[in-house]
Structures are given as C-alpha cells and as structure tokens.
Amino acid sequence: MALTWTHKDRGEIRVHENLEELSIDLVDYIAEISEASIKEHGVFCIVLSGGSLINLMGKLVEPPYNKIVDWAKWYVFWADERVVGKNHDDSNYKLAKDTLLSKVNVFPRHICSINDTVSAEDAATEYEFAIRQMVKTRTVIASENSDCPRFDLILLGMGSDGHVASLFPNHPALEVKDDWVTFLTDSPKPPPERITFTLPVINSAASVVVVATGESKANAVHLAIDDLTSLETLLPCLLGWSSQAVGI
Ligand SMILES: O=C1O[C@H](COP(=O)(O)O)[C@@H](O)[C@H](O)[C@H]1O
C-alpha cells in the first residue's frame, strides 16, 4: 500500500513499498489519464523519458492494460533524447520502442521522435517545429496559461543529481524560456549531445509525474520534498512545479 500525501508545493507524493507496487500504480495512473484525455478531447498526448522509467511501464503491454488502452488514440513524444542513431543503445526512442511501442498498436505516424541524422541543434529545432505544427492542427492542445503545448501527461525519471529530462543542475539549459526544445552538447551524463524540453513546456502539461527509485536517488528526493529553500535553484526536479502530481 503506497504512502500518499499532498505536498503544499509539489502536488501528490506517493511512496511505494517496492518496484512491483510502484509499477502497478504507475500504469494504472497512465491508463486512467489516457482514458480521461481521450474522453475529453479525442486523443492522448503522452511524453516519455528514458532510463529506468520505461521498464517500470512494462505492464502496459500485458493484460489487462494492453486490451483496455485505446492505443490508436495515443500520440507519443519524448521529454528528452540523446542525439544518437535510433538503433543505438543510448537512444531513448529505441528503449521505448523495444520495451513498449513495438508491442502495442500505436500508429507509427503518431510517434514524434527526433531526426537522428542531424546535429543536436537542428534536431531540437526540427522537433520543436513538428510539435508547433501539431499544436496548430490541434492534435496537441495549446496551454491557456503560457505560450506552450499542454501535453496530457509528461513522465519524467530523475537522476541521482536531481536532473529531469536533460535539464541538469546549474546548466544554462535551465534558463531557456523562449524555446520549447533546447539542446546540449556538454551533458554531464553521457552521451554529451542531447535535446530536451525546457521548463516552461514541462510546467505547462496537464499532469507531470516524476518517478524515482533506488538508494542513489534518495538524497535528491529528500531534498526535493523536505528542503525546498536551500536547493531550489540547484535541483531541476524542484523548479517551478506547482499543481501537478508527483509520484515517487
Ligand atoms: O539520461 C537520462 O537519465 C534520466 C534518469 O534515468 P534513470 O535511468 O536514472 O532513471 C532519464 O529520465 C532521462 O530521460 C535520460 O535521458
């Protein structure tokens, strides 16, 4: 049974006994938001990350979820991507494809991944352009509160340094406010070249879930929950969030 409470700044916090329980809660939550979004506006725009998060979503491709989720209405995006070939083991796209997307009926044309044949800068520009087109055609809803898309659900992992997407502590990418997608060529965690959603985009989503597991992340989680003031400017996982759900 998860320990659940509402934090005054961070939204809902859920602490689970073990990975199995977390994983069931996570996929239940995804299935619930998927159904609600499709009811509300016909599609479900979900944003994935890479890393350990994807394996925790594995139950989605098993019964009952694989049968009850309306995969044809899913549009899939990434909060960040490593600028490597789509067949490279470091690719967040490959991880999601191998673990999830190749096992369910999401239309390939509904999968919005980066161009892996260009520079990080061009990949960021092209990815943002593609999303802007989808906002124009209203596949992705525009936020009413910012000049950003309002994704139905953004799923974020968190590194032990507190990074989310490819927004790392003290990195200039954290300051980018006018672009939806930015790029890095000096990521502190390899590989160095990446693209990432900026904070305004993450903060404009209808729901954001941060999933953190394992001892190496305990300190960053503790700081995120208990020590808001001293590290507010340092930990990307703290920045700007107000009303979204945070699942840990
Ligand atoms: O490099 C990345 O790391 C984070 C965290 O990964 P994890 O394996 O420690 O869970 C991930 O969320 C991000 O998408 C990825 O590019």
Task: Please characterize this protein's 3D structure.
It is a single chain. By secondary structure, this protein is an alpha/beta fold. The relative contact order is 0.17. It has 7 helices and 10 strands. The protein has helices at residues 19-41, 52-56, 65-68, 92-99, 120-136, 199-203, 218-226, and strands at residues 3-7, 11-15, 44-48, 74-78, 80-82, 153-157, 181-184, 194-197, 208-211, 246-247. The chain has a 4-stranded parallel β-sheet with strand order 4-3-6-9. The chain has a 3-stranded mixed β-sheet with strand order 1-2-10, with no helix packed on it. The longest helix is centred in the N-terminal third of the chain and has 23 residues, at 19-41. The chain has one domain: 3-Layer(aba) Sandwich (Rossmann fold), CATH 3.40.50. It binds ligand LXAUTJHC. Residues 49-53, 80, 92, 156-157, 159, 165-166, 189 line the site of the ligand O=C1O[C@H](COP(=O)(O)O)[C@@H](O)[C@H](O)[C@H]1O.
Task: Name the features.
6-phosphogluconolactonase_DevB; Probable 6-phosphogluconolactonase; globular; 7 helices; binds the ligand O=C1O[C@H](COP(=O)(O)O)[C@@H](O)[C@H](O)[C@H]1O; single chain; four-stranded parallel β-sheet; three-stranded mixed β-sheet; Rossmann fold
